[in-house]
Amino acid sequence: MVDLRFFFVSLIIIFFFVFSTVSQSPDQTVENKSLRVLSKTLIGDDGRVYACSDNDFFSFESNGSIAWSVHMDFKCNTGFSPVYSGFNQMLVLTENRILRIDFPRNGTKSEPEMFFDPGETILGFAVSISSSSVYITVKDHGLYAYNMIRQQLWIAEPKTERFGYRLGCQKDYENCKFDSPPVIDSCEASIYISNNEGELYSLSLRGIYYQWIQDLSLVDKFFTVTPGNNGLVYVVFPTKSLVFALDSFSGDILWQKTVGPLAEGSGSQPVIDTNSWVSIGSLDGTLYSFSRTGELKTPENVETDSMIQVEPLLDCSGNAVYVSQTKLEGKTDLIGESTFVSAKKPETAVFSLVVPETRSIHWSHSYSDQSTSLLLDEDLQHFVLDERIVLAFIAASNSGNPFRCRSKHDKLSSSCSFAEPEHLDIYIGNERTIIWFLLFEFVIIVLFAALVRLCFMFWKKQKLQGRPFSAFLDKRRLLHRKRREIDRTITRLQNESTADEFSVDKINDLVQERENVKRKLSSTYSLGRDIDASSKSKDHVLPLYGGGSRSLSFRNRENESITIFQTHRHESSSSSEESYRDQHYDDDDGVADDENDEGDLKRKQKGKFLAHSEGSSSEDDYESCGIASSRRSTYLKKRSLSFRD
Fold first, then answer.
1. Among 302, 270, 273, which Cα is nearest to 286's?
2. I want to staple 531 with a disulfide (CB 3.0 to 4.6 A). Which of 178, 365, 395, 523 is the partner?
3. What is d(CA 420, CA 408) in angstroms, rounded to the nearest whole number?
4. CA torsion 410→416→418→419, rounded to 10°?
5. Which residue blocks in 500-589 are alpha helix, DSSP H?
6. Maximum CA pair distance of the chain?
7. Are 298 and 325 in contact (CB under 8 A)?
8. What DSSP character marks residue 268?
9. For 585-599, how does the pLDDT look when each residue is reduced to its tens digit (9 = 90+)?
10. Contact 362, 402 (CB under 8 A)
11. Cβ neighbour number for residue 115 with a 10 Å cutoff
12. What tens digit of pLDDT does each residue of 544-578 get?
């Protein structure tokens, strides 16, 4: 099968050189006028070559035979190649109209369908299969976006403003127009298009969003754009022999390289392989290959008397490129302010398969125009063949290719493998300083979060609801002053030499009062959350009396008796009474609360004094009776006795 393909390719090449001789006879001139001119070709995933000529669209097998053809009502534009739009459909530019051609199904052909007819000049179009959209540049109008059912999505113009500032068209705002076909970067979901002032635009596929605009007019206004699908955009200036690599995310120029003289038009279009090497042919006969970082490699044993006039083509494996070199009898290069290349009669054409990464040539064949063994029994004999057409059929037939062709799955998996995500550097400087700064920020954030939480708990306190903050602080200062006064009083009483029962009871009352003050400072008047004091058990400083209850009875002269019962108060009842008293006092303002506390303390001390005085002059049964003791509950019961007649 490989030998048969090689035989057909040899016939095509021999036929090309016979009809491309410089000195032609009159009979040959008349015969050439009857030959048809093919448009730019497209090599499909099925290995076929697609092109159009006049009013017909052709699908060729790799050996040059016609697989099928469709007649069109309009003449095709030979300067543009067909574009595959998915779903077994092709879009073809014909007389400023875009036709949609369906592949035959079960041998049945369908008529071409009108897809877009603006009534104006179409400068070019591109198809995004992933978004099922078509992007068309119409002269003097802008960039149009349509979906596959011919619904208009949006229209973009080169004149745009953002936040009151003009973007693009800085030099001639009134006459600024798009003047290039759109180019799609599938990995970045972007569209690249240029205007007549030498500015390159990057737009989003999903809407009218200008990602960046790069002004290249300082170099040249005429350039070609090729997406690398690897995070780079390659811009070639044919008249300057320069190759630029731009960042597809920001539009910044990463590197620029100088190459040999380039042919204008399609000859200056580079090709990118799966290893992210970009290759471009020069009129000096050299294939220049650059890596993603700008490293240059050229094939070995380059012929000096040769030139590359057509763009290289990628093979089916994606690792190598097919190159066509034309050997000449003589060639003169003049490189100065402008580059000129003068060539004499071509002798032979050399078609090679080159791997740019290794600079190795895996296959190469030379064909002379003096061959006489012609077997023109194929369909290509009706068309004019040049190097571009012959190179397309050689690439489609995989001549001399030792590599395995990629499947559709392999193409999808490796299409954006070299596209690196963009990492934005927020901080620029010393790495150690940045780390310490981030650590300091983290500490500040933690402290701020703790402060916010503290403030949130603080402002939920019951004592701050409906009263000013100054009153809360005044009450807090008053409680602190009261605690210090109690501490000083307790210390003074303990240092006195007398240790009678009255002093002990007074110290006990002061200790209890100090505990109440501390409880208020740690709960209702603290700087934290409120704590329910009733839920905590109250610890007594002095032990309670452990005996049982006793009663004292008195009788007066009127036969009335009074019985006094002395019992111990239960701890829970004492706590509840104190909690009720504290709550009652806390509901008042700070000053009234303090006055009530001081009055209560005075009353307790006065009661103790009276109880002590009364107990010193009474019997032993009455000396332990306290009238207003804080540790006893006294119940009075008065009974009226009935008088006997």
1. 302
2. 523
3. 22
4. -170
5. 501-522, 571-586
6. 174
7. no
8. G
9. 444 444 444 445 555
10. yes
11. 20
12. 444 444 444 444 544 555 454 444 444 444 444 44
